[in-house]
Design a protein that fits this description.
Layout lengths: L2 H6 L14 E8 L4 E2 L5 E2 L4 E8 L3 E8 L2 E8 L2 H11 L8 E4 L13 E8 L2 E8 L8 H8 L14
Parallel strand pairs: 7-9
Antiparallel strand pairs: 1-4, 1-8, 2-3, 4-5, 5-6, 8-9
């Protein structure tokens, strides 16, 4: 996962997109749980969470939280950049209103995964994927990598890094 994406992972919930018509993608990454040894070494920890709200009309809002610090920034994107994001995430858009790959849906679960929530909105319709990377991790590794890198092409250079 890119440092930028990890840094963006903040908001505790999806930021509303101001458009009522048109298309939007709202992406939230929530912190991973940390597994630490008695000497303080922690594996794969992230204390940063973020939400990225991208609207098809060229607006992106990023909200992130690290410790008690919360920040929010707006960016402009070209229609082609939104289309590239839409295409990258399209294979994961569920055919039904909400799909959850977490908890009872998992055969095997490990505890240091990352939670991703992706919501697709178009003309009043919503579809949502709730995905925990620790849910059947081997089977969903490519999906986790693709979702985690989906925003790498957006011009979010001002976002903090963790």
């Amino acid at each position: 996962m890119s440092p930028l994406l990890a840094a963006l992972l903040l908001a505790a919930g999806a930021q509303e997109v101001s458009e009522t018509k048109g298309e939007a993608i709202i992406f939230t990454r929530t912190p991973t749980l940390c597994l630490c040894t008695s000497d303080g070494d922690c594996l794969r920890c992230s204390e940063t969470s973020f939400t990225v709200s991208a609207a098809g009309k060229g607006h992106v809002r990023v909200k992130w939280r690290q410790d008690s610090r919360i920040d929010e920034r707006d960016f402009a994107i070209a229609p082609a950049q939104f289309e590239a994001l839409r295409v990258r995430l399209a294979p994961f858009m569920p055919g039904e209103a909400r799909v959850s790959l977490d908890g009872p849906a998992c055969k095997r679960t490990w505890t240091d995964g990352t939670y991703y929530d992706v919501e697709w909105r178009q003309d009043g319709q919503r579809r949502q994927l709730h995905f925990y990377t620790g849910c059947d991790a081997e089977a969903h590794a490519a999906m986790g990598e693709a979702i985690g890198r989906a925003f790498d092409t957006l011009p979010l250079t001002e976002a903090p890094r963790h």
